[in-house]
């Protein structure tokens, strides 16, 4: 049978910008091998496969595949999937999504004449700061000098469902100089316990970052919800952006180096000075849809 595949750019309203994802609606009955085959053929960093709920505890089940492996959850492909559901089926409102990382609250609502999708991510978790002895190796793996990593701030694994190694940089110009060594990042990721690397710089009310995950077949991801969400928790934990003690809201900019600029809208609820609830939101645009045979 044929499956309808949507080609979507997430975290943008401009076709060809943001982060591209595949979306397969009505994926029930597909095997894992079929999903991986389609994800590999599309070549996007992630493709979302939308399934009917397995029980009354959730409204929709979504699985995510890179070209080489299934991952537990993906921010931009979630935005893409629920944007398609809203745009083609009128499915707006709040939903519970089951993923490999657990349950997430998703909201699809009208915004500026189109749809915006918000994702309530998992509770923030923080790993121990990466050992100081690893910082020069991390800098070398990113193609920068050790002093390009911001002094006094930890390199740290943070997760709101799918962990990233957050690497604070001294300034935004360092982002443009990054020349990552994929093999070195894969090896270091195995040591620190995360496969995704997110170097970033902080501005006034925004951040800019880049994300590399060669261990899962993603050389560089244009715009990453599951990096900018943990970044919001990191900013609160380490006092890097002013807030009113109850909420921090900012824009996470990413993709400029690839010519695919996009924006993740990040909202962090704060309790007793600590990040408690992280929500990310994004726009999207459908570039086209096509059919692919599932065998």
UniProtKB/TrEMBL annotation:
For this record, the Gene Ontology CC terms, alphabetical, are: cytoplasm
Q: Extract the InterPro entries matched here.
A: Phenazine_PhzF-like
Which superkingdom? Bacteria
Alphabetical UniProt keywords: Isomerase
Active-site residues annotated for this sequence: 46
What GO molecular-function term can you cite, just one? isomerase activity
Q: Which NCBIfam families match?
A: PhzF_family (TIGR00654)
* Assigned protein family: Belongs to the PhzF family.
Q: What is this protein called?
A: PhzF family phenazine biosynthesis isomerase
Question: What is the organism field in this record?
Answer: Pseudoduganella umbonata
């Amino acid at each position: 049978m044929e499956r309808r595949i949507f080609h979507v750019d997430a975290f943008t309203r401009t076709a060809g910008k943001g982060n591209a994802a595949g979306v397969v609606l009505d994926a029930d009955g597909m095997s894992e091998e079929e999903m991986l085959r389609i994800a590999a053929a599309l070549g996007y960093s992630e493709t979302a496969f939308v399934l009917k709920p397995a029980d009354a505890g959730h409204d929709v089940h979504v699985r995510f595949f890179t070209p080489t492996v299934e991952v537990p959850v993906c921010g931009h492909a979630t935005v893409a999937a629920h944007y398609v559901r809203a745009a083609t089926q009128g499915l707006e409102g709040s939903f519970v999504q089951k993923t490999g990382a657990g349950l997430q609250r998703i909201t699809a609502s009208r915004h500026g004449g189109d749809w915006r999708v918000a994702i309530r991510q998992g509770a923030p978790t923080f790993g121990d700061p990466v050992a100081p002895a690893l910082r020069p190796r991390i800098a070398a793996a990113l193609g920068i000098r050790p002093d390009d990593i911001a002094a006094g701030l930890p390199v740290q694994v943070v997760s709101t469902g799918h962990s990233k190694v957050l690497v604070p940089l001294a300034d935004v110009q360092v982002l443009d100089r990054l020349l990552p060594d994929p093999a070195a990042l894969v090896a270091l990721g195995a040591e620190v316990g995360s496969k995704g690397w997110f170097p970033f710089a902080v501005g006034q009310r925004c951040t800019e970052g880049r994300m590399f995950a060669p261990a899962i077949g993603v050389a560089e991801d244009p715009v990453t919800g599951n990096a900018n969400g943990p970044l919001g928790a990191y900013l609160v934990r380490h006092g890097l952006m002013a807030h009113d003690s109850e909420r921090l809201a900012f824009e996470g900019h990413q993709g400029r180096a690839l010519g695919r600029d996009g924006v993740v809208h990040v909202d962090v609820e704060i309790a007793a000075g600590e990040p408690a609830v992280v929500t990310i939101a994004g726009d999207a645009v459908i570039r086209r849809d096509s059919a692919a045979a599932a065998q």
